[in-house]
Specification:
mainly alpha, 4 helices
Length: about 90
């Protein structure tokens, strides 16, 4: 192969690599944000359970509760506390 063919193939490969990186960056960013929100939700559940002696409120620290709090935020935490209050 001559030098021109090698350069064109290399340039085409770089363009495909850049397109693939751009296509996969959005889902990775979304997954990273979801994981961070899940960890913050889990941390808020642990914080609620750490203050049980003062407040009398406690929630189970599990994946479902962490997911609800991570998706809904503070209203999700209040919702879980209200649901626990209603069912006990």
């Amino acid at each position: 192969m001559d030098m021109r063919t090698i350069l064109l193939l290399g340039l085409g490969g770089l363009m495909l690599l850049a397109a693939a990186a751009r296509a996969f960056s959005a889902p990775v960013r979304l997954a990273r944000k979801a994981a961070l929100n899940m960890l913050l939700g889990l941390g808020s559940l642990i914080l609620v359970n750490a203050t049980t002696a003062l407040t009398g409120l406690s929630l189970g620290v599990n994946v479902f509760n962490a997911a609800v709090v991570s998706v809904l935020g503070v209203p999700g935490l209040v919702l879980l506390l209200l649901l626990q209050w209603v069912f006990t």
